Amino acid sequence: MIAAVLTDHKYDFDQFFKFYQNFGNSKSGMMAWQIIQSGSDLKPNPNPNAHADDSGTDGDMDAGMALVLAHDKWGDAAYLTAAKKVSAALMKYTINPTSKLPNLGDWVTGDPDEMQDRGAPGVGPRKYHYVTRASDCMAWNMEVLAKVDPKWKQVQQACLAALVQMSEASGCGLPPDFAIYNPSTKRTEPVPSDVPLLEKLGDADYSWNACRTPWRLAAYIKHSSDPLARRAASAMTTFFEERAFSKLYAGYNLPGCTPRVDYINAAFSGPAWALLKAMGKNDAAAAMEDQIRTARAVPKWGKAYYSDSILLLSQLETR
Fold first, then answer.
1. Burial class of 122 by CB neighbour count within 10 A (0 to 12, 13 to 18, 19+)
2. Distance from the CA of 70 to the CA of which of 170, 239, 243, 308 falls in 20 to 30 A?
3. 3-15 burial, b for 16+ CB within 10 Å, e for fewer?
């Protein structure tokens, strides 16, 4: 939806919007997060381990922003009505009332002490009430959604402050995939590194969720002069600038910022490129483009939907 509105393809936007509407979930009306093809039909994944009827906060935040942008561009009041509905559902079901940070989805319980079994098979029940993704701190989305609900500015500033804290904790500016807000200290801290929280051991590292964070920050910096955003991006930008002329690997252990793997991927280099561009590091951004081309030339997995969609949106939102 975002790509369609930013490239002025209204027909495509309307088809994506129809798809979004067709798969509103049973709890909040936000989109069920995992849709699969079954024969000639599309439906939420019936595998109970997939929890496919749950929402994913970032997807709905993207849809809500796209609807506001579509209304601004094409003037259809139906888009604005839908954007207000998505915004209200996000506020009600996914924004933590204490931390003001995004929860992982509408499935997260309101009881801080309640255990939930929503992770990958074998992870086991965990407490998710105060858990957030660094990559869900989507400051430009929140700026746009603030047009329909000013409370998004409060969420945005809480997110940027949390990113500053995560940056300081890692020692190199990189945020973890998942973090936990501590209501006693009012700080957002990396999750424990020795126990998988949601997906795997390494949920506390800079990996396949947190790799989106530089793109989200870059999009906001491109459209705003907010000093808190630049503070959140400063050390991260330095880290990427140093590795633009060598190699940016597809994940880093935190703290310490040592590579988790020995390969590169555009899901990491694309967002890094976007942040370097937004922060005015043009020589480093040009060098990072070479890494993107190299990553996409890898047989079989160099070109994949996840990395290519991240790369596309990193380019579109910061151009």
1. exposed
2. 308
3. bbbbeeeeeebbe
